[in-house]
Amino acid sequence: YDDSWSTMYLIRFLLVLVLVLVPLGSSDPVLEPYDLLFDVAVEAYSRADWLSVVLHMEKALRNKALIRTVKADCRLRCSNQSSFSQPVAGVGAVGVPIPGSGSVQDLGFFQKVLHRADCVKSCENHKLGEPSFHRGTEEVDLEFKKRTPYNYLQVAYFKINKLDKAVAAANTFYQANPDHMEMKQNLDYYRMMAGVQEEDFKDLEAREHMADFLLGKSYYSDASFGLAARHFEEALVEYFNADKECRALCEGAYDYDGYNYMEYHADLFQSITDHYLQVLNCKQRCSVELASSAGKDTPFEDFLPSHFNYLQFSYYNSEKYEQAIQCAKTFLLFHPEEQVMTQNLNYYSVVLGEDKAATIAPRQEVKQYIQQSLLEKELLYFGYEAFGITFVDPDTWTPEDVMPKKLREKQKADRETAARITEEIGNLMKEIETLVEEKKKDSTDVVKMVKPLEGGAVLYNDIVVTMTSRQLNGSQRVLLDGVINDDQCRELQRLSNAAAGKGDGYRGGVSPHSPSETFQGVTVLKAVKLGQEGAVPLQSSRLFFDVSEKVRKVLESYFLLDTSLYFSYSHLVCRSAIDEKQDQCSDLSHPVHVDNCLLVSELNECIKEPPAYTHRDYSAILYLNDDFEGGELIFTELDARTVTAEVRPRCGRVLGFGSGKENPHGVKAVTQGQRCAVALWFTLDPLHQEKVGSYICSSNHPSIHPFIHPFIHPHALYDSAPPTGCYRLLPWCCVLVMDHLSLYMFCSVGEDPG
């Protein structure tokens, strides 16, 4: 953190200590902020203080959950104490108009609003303390949503030999992140460990209603209908409890949703309308939230009605016809025209007796739920028509006539237009796929297997081969000196410090690899753009490009390649030691890894599949300085521990090597000063080369939509800003252009953009 952030956290921490030691009007200490606890745990993790990680991260999880529970409880309790349907004290049945102010009933309504607000505030302050201490930042809230705390916890518990808790934490994280390869490998590893039981693989964040629903489905599939019915019934009870909590939590602060609150000038009733419609929108989305399961891309369709579908058949198979009839009738509240369920109901009624069946009513709580939801939808659609506040109905069971006629007609027209466009796109895509297949065949013929050859000419008289693969104890390795001179090193180092952004290239993370260092970087494209804008000397940007090209030519020649090397990614990076974090620094500046596959050091394996950059074939590092301590590059075996070679940086030195599993490598910690280098990755596949595309521009400003075909290229548009009304295209990419009457598609269909 910089000084301002450090000061802020110090002040906040001291305030928390004061509040804990001196409670304000309560015998209970004020709740510690969960985001502060999370930050303390992360800091402890970087120090390998595993007990502190567990203590603070578990407390952060508990406090965040407690805040949610308390807020929901306070709002529900206060809504019961001050219902708007109750008569107002001192106000007659008929409101008396007040000149210029409306009726006394209006004052009565706002009286209830004020009392409700006071009730909620008092309740939350009593149980949680001042609101400012439990408002987490968006960044930390996102980490909790991704279940990141459990990633830290599984490591910490493993380190202190609490295997059951480590397994539970790992499984909890994995449920929400099923594409996380490392965690999947950890879980596989845990399964092979002695003492680990199957019941240890818990989901600590599993929602009760979803757990019972899934268990009910499992029993249903096994034809254990009695057990299935029991769990579906329990799931319904838990669902409605969770729905109440979700709806209560919707009654929070107004989200300005893109508006600058300082410029928001709505009057009293418009403000109330905006906020209330936002709350209703949130309450409608509760059905989606409660139908969502961790790790599942989409929520269960028709989730609440499906409970009664499962239940009616489970009760029928258990010969409980009264319950089957009730559940069938309840399902038909959602879908009254559903023929199969109607036939089932008729059959159950005949078996039980139609007179007796007629006396069985659907479930009252579901009738009330549907009535409330439909009224909310009507208000939201009114807001859509009157104020343009968008509402997308999340439910499939809503009757058609709830939506206003004009909106129905508009949506119908939109669907027809979308269908026409989809058909036209489909026809265009067939033509493009044919072109792409032809291009892929050509590319396959060009790309050859990397041959383990070396020893070719280095092309320049000043360049010296200092060490070969044999001297570096490996294969496909070379160390070259004299590639650039001292002046060029200094100029590139100045370029890095002038143009590089903190964490650039690693999603803005200031310390993406080590908390003991800061990291900054700049790509060739960004440097050239800054040079064109005058932000940095253009000659420095050109030097960056030229030396990168020089290294490419030298490696292509030295490794005796019979096809061209293409740039995959170029990055000028500097790592700087953080002095105050060096006392207990034991980590690497960059952990041991392989450039084109996922290293699994425990198994001595490297998996060549995404998210690894599998197209990378050769790597190179051009060092710019040596006036620092640490920062040596190390080669290791696949176990990531056995060091086979070590390279000390110096100005003008280039280390080139194959990007495959034969060359696991990492960087030792920079313990003092700043280490700068140009990192270069190359590919033999021209489809993955790093290049600038051309522009497609519009003079009459139609709506231009980037369209990326999955067989073509993963990135159609560059992040650098093109001229107004223009988009930048990569080779083999397309944009879809629509105006009021026509649909056009523009594509670049060659290696050179056009």
UniProtKB/TrEMBL annotation:
Residues 570-684 form the Fe2OG dioxygenase domain. Belongs to the leprecan family. InterPro entries: Leprecan_dom (IPR056585), Oxoglu/Fe-dep_dioxygenase_dom (IPR005123), P3H (IPR039575), Pro_4_hyd_alph (IPR006620), Pro_4_hyd_alph_FE2OG_OXY (IPR044862), TPR-like_helical_dom_sf (IPR011990). Its EC number is 1.14.11.7. GO terms for molecular function: iron ion binding; L-ascorbic acid binding; procollagen-proline 3-dioxygenase activity. It is an enzyme of class 1 (oxidoreductase). It comes from the Eukaryota. Its cofactor is L-ascorbate; Fe cation. Keywords: Dioxygenase, Endoplasmic reticulum, Glycoprotein, Iron, Metal-binding, Oxidoreductase, Repeat, Signal, TPR repeat, Vitamin C. This is procollagen-proline 3-dioxygenase. GO terms for biological process: collagen metabolic process. Pfam families: 2OG-FeII_Oxy_3 (PF13640), TPR_leprecan (PF23557). The keyword Lyase does not apply. One of its GO terms (cellular component) is endoplasmic reticulum. Residues 1-27 form the signal peptide. It comes from Gouania willdenowi. The gene is p3h1.
